[in-house]
Automatic annotation (TrEMBL):
GO terms for biological process: cellular response to lipid. Residues 44-294 form the G-protein coupled receptors family 1 profile domain. This is G-protein coupled receptors family 1 profile domain-containing protein. PANTHER family: OLFACTORY RECEPTOR 56B1-RELATED (PTHR26450), OLFACTORY RECEPTOR FAMILY 56 SUBFAMILY A MEMBER 41, PSEUDOGENE 1 (PTHR26450:SF52). GO terms for cellular component: plasma membrane. It is a multi-pass membrane protein.
Length: 312
């Protein structure tokens, strides 16, 4: 913790981040797992992006959305995990005041962007299955417009979270009991009123992630109804396979997120290290597995990856 004094009082310029207070002896082993997952996540997403970039047959809206999703995954990984590894390996626990709130901003903005991208991907699958004659709706221009809307919607909705947190007066302990600058972990160090901060985060998260999840579930209900009504077994299998990869990605995303939320709500009933670890893993496991799932389950991407490695 570093403080500087001026005419207006004491100003915080750094925070101290303590990841797992009771697990110092096992942090090095955990760091090996996290580093391996980081290498896997970056490598897999890089291969996927290069495959989509170089394979002309993948110049389609669905694969553009997948590329956007990979960029968001990589950004979240690089925002969180390198700092965690620096804490584990070199005890570099300090983080600047501005750096902490920049990390908070990126996490709070890019996570809902992933959710919104899932929604657009679900809409693409919905049109392909329920309204195949209207498939011309999903064009490159549609993806561009959707991406612009996603960026501006989430920037405007999530920017107040770090801004409100940064404006608080931090005069108590400056030790963040977390591996990352999560909003709640930081603002509870303030000696001011944080009810507005908590309320805004709750409303913004559930309005963004909650509405996306509801719409995704509705779209899959309509798709399931349409698939059941199909007479051809082969057509049914093909329709389900087009949604399988996307549904697996949603399960990765939602499962860890929901487990993290519920463990946080459990409070003292579970060790404090559990939600911290889940928060870190949520920035690693989906990014590491998402491109692998699409690479294994999507024939076009699999062929593109083979061609990429043969040409290199």
């Amino acid at each position: 913790m570093v403080l500087s004094s001026n005419n207006t009082g004491t100003q915080v310029i750094e925070f101290l981040m303590i990841c797992f207070p009771g697990m110092q002896d096992t942090q090095h082993w955990l760091s090996i797992i996290l580093a391996s997952l980081l290498v896997l996540a970056l490598g897999a997403n890089f291969v996927l992006l290069m495959t989509i970039w170089q394979e002309a047959s993948l110049y389609e809206p669905m694969y553009y959305l997948l590329a956007i999703f990979s960029v968001l995954d990589v950004t979240l990984c690089l925002t969180v995990i390198p700092k965690v590894l620096l804490i584990f390996w070199f005890n570099m626990t300090t983080i600047s005041f501005s750096g902490c709130f920049l990390q908070m901003f990126i996490m709070n903005t890019f996570l809902p962007m992933e959710s919104s991208t899932f929604l657009v991907m679900a809409y693409d699958r919905y049109v392909a299955i329920c309204h195949p004659l209207c498939s011309s709706i999903i064009t490159e221009q549609f993806v561009i417009n959707a991406a612009i809307f996603i960026v501006f919607q989430n920037l405007l909705a999530t920017l107040p979270t770090p801004v409100l947190a940064a404006r608080l007066n931090y005069c108590a302990s400056k030790v963040v009991e977390n591996c990352i600058c999560a909003n709640i972990s930081v603002i509870k160090l303030s000696c001011g009123d944080i009810h507005l901060n908590k309320l805004y985060q709750f409303v913004s998260v559930w309005c963004l992630l909650g509405s996306d999840l509801v719409l995704i579930l509705l779209s899959y209900c309509f798709m399931l109804k349409a698939v059941i009504s199909l007479q051809s077994g082969g057509t049914t299998t093909k329709a389900l396979s087009t949604c399988g990869s996307h549904l697996i990605l949603i399960l990765f995303f939602c499962t860890l997120l929901l487990v993290f939320i519920f463990t946080n709500k459990a409070g003292k009933k579970i060790p404090s290290e559990v939600p911290i670890l889940l928060n870190v893993l949520h920035h690693l496991i989906p990014p590491a597995l998402n491109p692998i799932v699409y690479g294994v389950r999507t024939q076009e991407i699999k062929q593109g990856i083979i061609k990429l490695f043969k040409s290199s």
